[in-house]
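I am still learning, so would you mind making up any protein sequence you like and the tokens describing how it folds?
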Amino acid sequence: MEERRPLDDRQLDAILTRLDRIAEELHGINRKLDAADGTLRIAHELKTMNDSLQALAYAALGQSGPKVHRRSA
């Protein structure tokens, strides 16, 4: 194995700076994923509510179904 030499202060500072930038990027990515997750939950809830409203609308129509009158052109 190759022997490692100790890092000087300048090299350590450069590494820490890069790690800080990586941490900031990960934080930004996590925020975006959290926002996307929230949007997906909202979309799922809206779909569920829409399905429920449609079921209620059809139940309100009863067994006869909708009566649609078409206009003559």
Summary: The chain has a mean pLDDT of 86. The radius of gyration is 30 Å. The CA atoms of residues 45 and 51 lie 10 Å apart. The longest helix spans residues 9-61.
